[in-house]
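Trying the structure run again after the queue cleared.
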Amino acid sequence: MREMRETLRATFGRVLRLQNRRRAARQGVLERVEEFSRPITVYLPPGYDRGDARYPVLYMQDGQNLFEPQRAFIPGQHWRLNEAADLAISDRRAEPMIIVGVDHAGPDRIDQYTPTRDESRQAGGKSAYYARLLIDELKPLIDSQYRTRPDDTSTGGSSLGGLVSLYLGLTRPEVFRRLAVMSPSVWWNKRAILDLVDRFDGPRPRIWLDVGGREGRDTLRDARTLRDRLLKKGWSDADLHFEEEPRGDHSERAWARRARPMLEFLFPPPTSS
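Done. Tokens:
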């Protein structure tokens, strides 16, 4: 009995210490970038205001859904991405990073987030324009205003945002070294993105790829097919993580649950690299 009490006491102690660490997690800050053509929200990691360290940058699509409940597509349902980053960084499970949330273009979202034009929908095909917007206009602005590592840039998003993130990494791998491809819309234009994967010949970005079990049979099939095509092109467990969340649906709440492990995979602390 004494050994059992000591074991329980030690277990409760570990739980309490974990809870205390979570409650005491240092918090980053959110800032606005006003001088751009669309709303931009920047997350600066805990400790940014102290020292002169430089940080990798993650550009995330659909920025209105990431940080603030009142701005989310469904009010109150946002990714809590800043909270996920705070916890991962405070627990030393992720390297501190800057996250740039890029609001979508409203009615032009579909066009800018799709790499090919789908004639049956009379839409799409302006991802190259969006790539230039990020690389030639926004990235220089962010690099000039914040202590970034300009050669350590990543991008990510969900749904069509996941599709365009994969496109950006496959067409500009010299710029985007890590990709968060969450519930990607592989279905767009007869799964044309798979042809781009098959033609890829360049440095392989580190990729987090995921899907929810409640997103539908076709979406699951497409995500698994994308995984298999990437593996065939040379990705491995070292630079590709595939996650299936059995109860995950196609929603901000589901992506919020996977936000922290996504950050931890893409930005492992230097000691575990």
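Residues 252 and 267 are 21 Å apart (CA to CA). Worth checking whether this holds up in the mutant runs.
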